[in-house]
Amino acid sequence: MNRKGCIYLETAVEPDAWTWVLGDGLETGWNCCVPFPVRRALWGNPAASLALGELMPADLVKEEHFRGREYRALRLVYERLVASVGTECLFIRVSAERHSAVRFAEIAQQGKILPTRAVSRAAAMTLAPMTPFPVLFTHRRMPLFRDEEQRQDALVLAGELLALTGTSDATWMRPEWGMRPGDDRGDDHYMRAVLRVMEQIDWDGPMGQEREVWQRARRFFKAVHFAEQVFGATWVTQVYVDESSFQPEMAQTGIRVVDKERYVHHLEI
């Protein structure tokens, strides 16, 4: 069952380990986009990334990003986010060919072992002593609505099709949002309802979709702009390798050999 060459990241199983990291979904609003292709995992600064609206490698965040009168309010946002998500995390892309964003989130919340080739052995040896550390996931099928009218149309469709709703202010801009114990996890964000509709369209085929409203939903989302964005986060609690890749020096960093029986409960990304 193991995959030679993979690094395995075990995620937390606590009920509140998963956090929805969703912007407001408007092209001109608060979102965290990925401005460049990320084929390998990236060690980044989550607070700066969310404040500035794009993925920021940890070593590229400088004081200059928050200087000047126009950035004074942004700095306050950044300082609050430092307290709620910290300044270091692993960013990993979730394959849109393997998982919808909402389905991945539901499975990941159960606590899984994530096999990935996006993390090198050298990086794994650096990360292992740092557990638990946060991991933020990105997905390329994340909508950016051109205006409030288009966003409201998406919400109306979610209500008609799946009787789902939500609020537009459940983003990281909400003061009580965060990854700390007791923080708001963004569970009432409207984008979860929208992503559920998209999952039905993208993954579940023609079942029940011949109704006029599903046809309308298909046409609607064809006109929506999508961008790779951060959508969720959890905690990595242990780093593993397969037995054939294990080296004695890895044990000193805390890396373990993955248990084949436990690897049955994996979530490939």
Describe the fold and architecture:
This protein is of the alpha+beta class and 269 residues long. The chain has a domain at 7-144 and 225-263. It is 32% helix and 19% strand. It contains 9 helices and 8 strands. It has helices at 46-52, 72-85, 101-108, 121-127, 148-162, 191-203, 212-222, 248-253, 260-263, and strands spanning 7-11, 19-20, 42-44, 89-93, 113-116, 133-144, 225-241, 256-257. Strands 1, 2, 3, 4, 5, 6, 7 and 8 form an 8-stranded mixed sheet that branches. Helix 8 (248-253) links the parallel strand 7 and strand 8 (256-257). The model has no long low-confidence stretch (mean pLDDT 87).
Helical/strand content category = alpha+beta
Give the number of DSSP strands. 8
Instruction: Give the N-to-C terminal Cα separation.
Output: 15 Å
Question: Helix and strand string, N-terminal first?
Answer: EEEHHEHEHEHHHEHEH
Mean pLDDT: 87
Tally of alpha and pi helices = 9
Radius of gyration: 19 Å
Q: Work out the strand percent.
A: 15-25%
Q: Choose one word for the global shape.
A: globular
* Helix share, percent: 25-40%
Task: Please outline the major beta sheet.
Answer: 8 strands, mixed
Any low-confidence stretches, pLDDT <50, length ≥5? none
